[in-house]
């Protein structure tokens, strides 16, 4: 069977959209630390990638807020704090990405 039949969707680290990886999957690094794999759409348009990261950040906080009645108060506060921290990281990353015309390749 061809390898394509075994392909499984993965989620873009910026826009959070699922996509089928190709043989050339791009791994995003920020400050020499891997952030995750990015989809072809984000790779081809850094400004759109920045918008996707901002949307992802807002969704993380919204999901944590929705969980308020589903977990203990301490668990919810911990989840909210983690979501807000990650969202802040994504916002700062989006600010940096937005200024790019193209990705810097290594």
Topology at a glance:
Elements: E1 10-11, E2 18-19, E3 26-30, E4 33-38, H1 40-44, H2 46-66, H3 73-98
Antiparallel strand pairs: 1-2, 3-4
Helix pairs in contact: 2-3
Summarize it:
This protein has 106 residues and is an alpha+beta fold.
What does this structure look like?
The termini are far apart. With 106 residues, this protein is an alpha+beta fold. The chain is 49% helix and 14% strand. The model has no long low-confidence stretch (mean pLDDT 88). Strand 3 (26-30) and strand 4 (33-38) form a beta hairpin. The protein is globular. A two-stranded antiparallel ribbon has the order 1-2. Helix 2 runs antiparallel to helix 3.
Looking at this protein, list some descriptive labels.
single chain; 106 residues; alpha+beta; two-stranded antiparallel sheet; two-stranded antiparallel ribbon; 3 helices; 4 strands; 49% helix; 14% strand; globular
């Amino acid at each position: 069977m061809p390898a394509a039949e075994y392909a499984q969707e993965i989620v873009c680290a910026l826009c959070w959209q699922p996509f089928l990886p190709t043989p050339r999957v791009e791994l995003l690094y920020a400050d020499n630390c891997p952030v995750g794999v990015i989809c072809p759409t984000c790779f081809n348009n850094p400004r759109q990638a920045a918008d996707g990261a901002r949307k992802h950040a807002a969704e993380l906080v919204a999901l944590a807020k929705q969980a308020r009645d589903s977990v203990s108060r301490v668990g919810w506060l911990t989840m909210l704090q983690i979501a807000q921290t990650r969202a802040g990281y994504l916002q700062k990353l989006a600010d940096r990405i937005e200024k790019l015309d193209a990705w810097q390749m290594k």
